[in-house]
Amino acid sequence: MDGLITGEGDGIVGLSVIDNNDVEHLIELNHSGEITGHQQDGYPDKPAKRTLEGNEHVEQARAFARYYVSATRGYETVSPSNNPVRINAVRLAIQALADEEFESLFGDLYQQMRSYHDETARAIQIPADAPGPNSVLYRQDVYLGVDPTETELKEAAVTLAASHGITLDEDAINEQAVSSLSTEALADWQSFGSDLADLASEKEADLTDGLYVDAVSSLYASYVDDGEYVVTEPDDSPFEREPDTHIELPPVDPGPLDEFREFLDHHLKCQVRDCFVRMGAEPPEPFRVLGAGRFEATAAYKLMDIYPEYHDPEEQSLLGKVRDLV
Q1: From 225, 271, 324, 325, which residue has the greatest number of CB atoms within 10 Å?
Q2: What is this structure's pTM?
Q3: Domain ranges in the chain?
Q4: Residue 179 CB neighbour total at 10 angstroms
Q5: Enclosing H/E stretch for 18
Q6: What SS3 state is found at 1?
Q7: 169-200: per-residue pLDDT in tens?
Q8: Counting Cβ atoms within 10 Å, is residue 262 exposed (0-12), middle (13-18) or buried (19+)?
């Protein structure tokens, strides 16, 4: 895959994308990632007339366009949970958790995994409509936060917070529950967050060092029922925004908690891999791994010959074939 920005104006970015069949796609999208124009002459215009692989190449080009504009222009054209940079940030933030913090956040998921392999009680019940207990994937949404006092914007952030009547300290940032804030205090924090985001964009600041796991949703599930992919709802979601990623695991034997941490880290690496593969791009070296990532990617690897079976951890022969994607 290759991309080139061809023009920008009035909130629209135009670019040329050359896909892995050497077909050129002329794509326009707005700053939120909505595709406003797409022309190509390598595949039928109507999706129903394309092959499964033809549709995948078209979707690869669109996904690559969103990522390319995000990477080169800084616009939020990729949704958080489909952004490999954001997913890897979640992975690194989870790595930084103390064991007690990790168990507090992901203990229900660990318990659910264990319930399939020993006498541990289930954290949630198997959905009644699921074809069987082993057909269920267990999901948990992960939300990141940013501690500006741990970034290069520390001094500016403290001054900005004071202008909103906020004092930045560890308790204020990491430990105060949103539900405990008054309407006025919540509005102050929201205004501060918006202004801080604008400042970070203006300064092109690297906020990586300040990222932490802010919250997770309750455990929920997904499964395929009569060919339809069904996703249940979590009992509670901490924020009214899209998560930075969602974990989606089959009922594997988790082993001891430290081994489960390693498995979860690998799962998130596979998610990053899936993001790049599904945009027709080569994953960076650390993410050329085998194993289960996103359900949709696993289904694509099974259905289409253009993809090796990256979801299968036993296919060690595939490790040398990751470059075949491009």
Answers
A1: 271
A2: 0.84
A3: 1-78, 152-205
A4: 7
A5: strand 12-18
A6: coil
A7: 655 555 555 555 567 766 776 677 677 767 77
A8: exposed
